[in-house]
Amino acid sequence: MLVNCENLYKYFGGELLLSDINFTVEDRDVIGLVGKNGCGKSTLLKIIMGYEGFDKTSDGKGTLVIASKVNIGFLAQNSGLTSKNTIKDEMKRPFKKLLNAYGRMKELEKSMGSSDDNNTKKKLSDEYAGLSSYFESNDGYRIDVKISSVLNGMGFKDFDLEMVIDNLSGGEKTRLAMAKLLLEEPDLLILDEPTNHLDLDTLSWLEDYLKGYKGAIIIVSHDRYFLDRLCNRIFEIENKRLTAYKGNYSSYVVQREMKLEREKKEYEIQKKEIAKLKDYIAKNKVRASTSNMAKSRQRTLDKIERIEKPVNYIRPPKIKLEYDYEPTKDILKVDGCDLTVGKGENKRTLIDSISFDVKRGEKVSIIGKNGVGKTSILKLIQGIIEHSKGNIEWANNVKKAYFEQENTTLDRYNTVIDEVHKRFPAMTDEQIRKILGSVLLTGDDVFKRVGVLSGGERAKLCFAVLTLQRGNVLILDEPTNHLDLITKEVLEQALAEYQGTIILVSHDRYLLNKLSTRIIEVSENGVVSYNGNYDEYREQKLREISKKTESDNNQKEKSKQDPKKKQYRTKEHRAADVKRKQLIKELESEIELLEQEISELETDISTPEIASDYELCVRKCKELEEKKKSLDAKLEEWAELE
């Protein structure tokens, strides 16, 4: 057991935030921590980390025990590295002890070579043997491979590793902070909203990496697809208390509904029982013949432990999307358009040619790496961004409604109610307050300036406007950003029930999976369309990769079997290829010999005769290390030539 929490309380300014919190974290647990915004998730993580204290009961109960020698790594929400170090130097910091050990080994090698005193040599060789064992057992020779693997997976494949970290963007600093934390490999990894700033490829890599993680993980995330793929337990904070559920996010949703239904039934049964007892007591307590029975029932009533009235997760918003008339069948046709962004000297073409179409009733999701131009495509088809070639044709009777990711169409100086009035001047205050209330913007919230609203509140205001626009084509750019889980579920249901056409950009794979009838993948080479939802898209992509790998392997095999079919343009090409093959052959012989020598050295070092001869043992260890380095270098050279 890594963490044990019992009867933990937390007050803020006299207000109770967390009440009677109890849980354990076992080794290899992957726990998703969920709950509405402001319920105390981040606070609980900070308590576990020791950044904040906690409160106890009046009788002194309240404990949080972290097992001894447990190393905890914490990635706070939207936190990033700030450092004058280069990326390369910063990524080596988690291996400081190993690298120091390696440096000391180098010093010892020089000292042993120059010392003539046998006692000194023995001490030095003992120290060297211990350091060498420590370095090898902790994968010291794979440090560079680990760093390269994690940096590539986290989207830094094409980055200059000599770049100073302070010159990176905020999102890049956050991704780099996570990369460093993964390299540290703590016993308990705590991640607060780790999926922010990650594109779909990086998310998939991170999920696969965390699936094989050797420690325990606690994740706070609004990404339900992420929680579904990774978690074996879900902790929900609701009404100040924590409830633990077994299974992933989808399993938790089912269990939560069953729990709520059970609590409602138990409450109703007890309510009827209490009412029945009270009625009996009231009718019989004044009669002499039945007063003793009434007193007995009163004692029974007094002993009943009252079940609290169940409170729903939160009062959910209501979003209903409707339109007034149908457009024609072929909604949109984009044919050979270029995608160009920026102005003047900063103008650049992201994609040379884009072609796709959208039919009535389709729910088309556009996906791709960050910066590839997904949002720009939404602006292109609406005429917000110009194109210099190709055509964009919309069907007749199309009424578009646009949800913009950054909500820049809102006037930050308007009040919420005035913002709606400006767009729909014929509506009364009562009508506007009703539609705002449906998305939980109520009371004095409607008189707040748009500029002081939270991200979630601004999104809800945009959904209210979207419902009033009654568009038969919805163009949505990251609509689930900034939303709590319950609001996401309500929006998804509204979009799933919507009978019109949807063109969507989103990183929310749970939404993509539930909603999409077609996926359009965007790259610098253009767009490719895949029928089905996100899971079906992934299956098709895996088949493509498998097919390409098989084709490449077949081509290589074919080239080996029939080298005469290879064509050369010049004698120089033929000579270079002959030289390359000769080098490969020589390297393969050298690699085979080195592997044999390494195996023999490892066998020798383990024998009692050499282990007891310190000078000889040190020489053998040094020779083994040099041969392993030589083998790594020759393997890299061989891979490049191949």
Quick structural summary:
This protein is an alpha/beta fold.
Q: What are the defining features of this structure?
A:
flat; 642 residues; alpha/beta; 48% helix; six-stranded mixed sheet; Rossmann fold; 18% strand
Describe the structure.
Among the domains are: 86-183, no CATH class; 253-303; 330-399 and 470-542, P-loop containing nucleotide triphosphate hydrolases (Rossmann fold, 3-Layer(aba) Sandwich), CATH 3.40.50.300; 581-641. Helix 3 runs antiparallel to helix 4 (118-137) and helix 9 (249-284) packs antiparallel against helix 10 (291-303). The chain is flat, with a radius of gyration of 33 Å. The protein has helices at residues 41-49, 87-92, 96-114, 118-137, 143-153, 170-184, 200-211, 224-230, 249-284, 291-303, 374-381, 416-423, 429-438, 455-469, 485-497, 509-515, 534-561, 571-605, 608-612, 614-641; strands spanning 3-12, 15-25, 30-34, 63-66, 72-75, 188-192, 216-220, 233-238, 241-246, 330-341, 348-359, 363-368, 391-394, 400-403, 473-477, 501-505, 518-523, 526-531. The protein is 48% helix and 18% strand. A six-stranded mixed β-sheet has the order 5-6-7-3-8-9, sandwiched between helices.
- For the secondary structure, the number of strands is 18
| CATH homology-level superfamily of the domain at 330-399 and 470-542 | P-loop containing nucleotide triphosphate hydrolases
Runs in which pLDDT lies below 50 for 5 or more consecutive residues are: none
CATH topology tier name of the domain at 330-399 and 470-542: Rossmann fold
Helix and strand content put the structural class at alpha/beta
N-end to C-end Cα span: 48 Å
Task: Say what oligomer this is.
Answer: single chain
**Overall form:** flat
Task: Write out the strand line-up for the largest beta sheet, numbering strands in chain order.
Answer: 5-6-7-3-8-9
> What would you report as the Rg, rounded to the nearest angstrom?
33 Å
CATH architecture designation of the domain at 330-399 and 470-542: 3-Layer(aba) Sandwich
**Share of helix among residues?**
40-55%
Residues in β-strands, percent: 15-25%
Name of the CATH class of the domain at 330-399 and 470-542: Alpha Beta
Q: Whole-number average pLDDT?
A: 88
Main beta sheet: strand number and arrangement? 6 strands, mixed
How many helices in DSSP terms? 20
